[in-house]
Write the structure tokens for this entry.
Amino acid sequence: MNVLDERLNDAPKIREDQPGLRNVMNRVDAEITVEVDGLRREFDSKEGKVTALDGVNLQVRKGEIFGVLGPNGAGKTTMIRILSTLLLPTSGKAGVMGFDVEKEPEKIRAVINMASGAERAGYDFISARGNLWFFSQLYGIPSEEAHKRINELSDMLGLQNYLDRKFYALSTGYKQRVTLVRAFINDPKVVFLDEPTIGLDVMTALSIREYILKQAKEHGRTILIATHNMAEVDAICNRVAIIDKGKILACDTPAALKRSLGAPSLVLEVSPVPAPASLEPLGKLDGVKGYTSSVDEERGLSRIQVVVDSDGSAQSVIDSVRKSGMTVVSNWRQQATLEEVFVALVGRGFREREHEAA
Amino acid sequence: MKLHSNPWLRTAYARLWVRAKSIYGEPLWVAVNVGFPFFTSFSFTMVYRAYGLGAYAGFAILGGVMISFWGNVLWSMASQFNWDKQVGLFEIYISSPAPITAILVGMSLGGILGTAPSAAMVAILGWVIFAPPIHPFWPAVVLVFSLTLASLYAMGMALSSLYLAYGREADSVNEALHEPVSLISGVYFPSVGGISPFPFAVQAAASLVPLTIGMDALRQSLGFPIKVAFIPLYIEALILALMALILLLASSRALRFLENKGRRTGSIAVRQR
Amino acid sequence: MSVLRSIVASVRVGWYREFNWTNPLLGFSMRTVGPLAGVIAASSVYFVGSSAARSFSPSQLAFILIGAALYTHVAAYSWVPTLAIAEGKWTYVFPQVFISPHSSLPYLTGRTLASFFSSTLTVIVSLVLSFFILSSVFNTSIPFTVTPLSVTLLFFAMLVNILAAFGLGLLLSAYALFATKFEWALPTYVAGLLMVFSEALFPVSFLPHPVSDVANVLPFTEFMRASRQAMIQGGDVYSYFSYIGLATLGGVILLAMGFLAFRYAENRARRLGVIDKKTA
């Protein structure tokens, strides 16, 4: 059993004889705001049943920014849709602020909000301010208070000067800022964000991350972010759950997850770019937990990241690569990243996983 | 509780505001929207004048007015949730505590408010150009007009739930429904009653559509020269009120059912996972 | 040759766009029910009015039936270039077509032709069904001439009318090229005008002067007249061809105007930078 497995086993367990979610929350930890227990969700498809979530357990605390990290198709969005009352679980339990998603959706809706990076929801012929006011009214916020919040939140995101523009006239980045102001307009206790910075330039993404951090820190909101952006998780999440094929593989702070790998990982730059199949023997070497590769087209090289358990294993990887006819242009050891944590758990990287799913 | 702090009213008002603002924020929309209903009613008025009784010209003008509302019900009510779903607005509605009926009622009132100027323009232009003979009893006209719009927009709400369930081709369904419903409702000519060209079975089926009863009631209250009325005006008013109520309740229940079904099957949002 | 290839490919795309239904029969029925109801509604208006005035005449019913059916046909496909541009800006197809070697004209031609074929099918079905329905409901005999010659002449008139309809389509799409709003609504506005001025439902002589003079020389009016000469008993070949001649002449003029307007709009749209701009 590796370190990560042990950590998972150490996580607080919910006893099966405990009847309701609210009781569980009250007894285990009063500060828990999101709780998921044995959550399973299946979808019907032409090929039969597809399992999007397969027995997920999670607990998120008040004021925490919690990342759900996984490749596309891992089940992140499904989890967010269940927690934000848009989707019912096939089995298992999920609760927000002590309310059950299945039985008490109205109570949950009053205390949450959500936003997706993929959405550009708004009425085209209405200004950004008008749209935000409209959304605030869905939560019954008095107009004066709503306008005050719109100004405050827009200020934080640099949206002030664009508030009076018609929604259709805003650029993608500013539409996304409107979406993020909307997500906090009702002073929510819990916010679900699905890929909040997807498709945005680096500077916009940075300002959005800063905004999210402030919301959690200064207002004590719980923010659950589903993303496949590892840098984002590293930058703002207090804890992260790594998810693949509907299962949580590990859950801890980003630093602890990276530390758990032990030895630094090995990075090789090789030439010529190998066929994916020719790298498969690497995964079978002793002491290799997994690997992922990417192509540097500009330099005509392939970069292979290998998660190893010792210095000796690193040397045998280099030997094996050389033996297979590739030239090792350079190699170095580096502090583990979250992707390498994923590689260690699954054996392959995000890209390969997404490729397999496609 | 103060009215303005009532979440239902607040939501309905906000949705009304969005709908009306979209129209009034761009006043040219009124001129654009008036085009097709006016020219259509103009053409039918000319048919009445060229081949028959000029006195019937008022049928076509009233038709031009009401077709504006029917178009609004179809394109901006029935298929609205479907479009909201495409752009991600519907999931925002559902995940908020806002009552969905408040959104629909607000959307209807906003639609009526937004359509009223172009409908009024059709009426004014028609009456100025053709001056058809009418003998209106205004209190009845106002009552019947309000009840017709209530039942028509309640039908729009009911359709919106149907479209949510089966509306992958909302535009095509709208195109397919627009003309046939106008035809059997007798928007431009009485499709029920003494001078209807249709057999009794068709008239009976047409009476199930609120617009049919509404058009007949409006023609009666405006004092058009109709030889034989379909049914007495007060009964038509009662039927319209009843239809509005039934359709409102039906749409509310249907939407609740579809929301639960959508949460079970994962069809509330377009994105599947 | 490659222009032809572009046109043929665009016809195919247009055809799929119009008939991309899981159930093609259902799709066709959905497309036909609207025009059919429109024809019956116009005929019913005539029936109600003329019956009350005791002036009902089967040949006038035939006049309206043909006019209403062909009006929906022209209205359906003349706005396709506008639709192709407005929709193409949303899906980013249009900018890609625009920068192709032959630019957008072959594409718009192909899309218009596809819509012409599909709306021809629907108009034929509407005409046949409304003929039987109205003969039965109004208990009358509608004086149509249905012979191989008359049907051929009708199709020929429809083909000639493509010139004018495409010209009108180009005029409308010229606006859609640089428009940021109303481009979706403009064609319905023009369709309304067409109903009044093309002799679809009543002779344009009923319109006041000089409006009636303008309507009198529109190629669409001549097309309606030629079609009626072909299909209604009592029509003659000489009149038919004189109307066809006028429809062709008017069509060529309208097409030239549409082409010039479109070229001007292309330049203006490039200056304004709105070829690849999504509209609201």
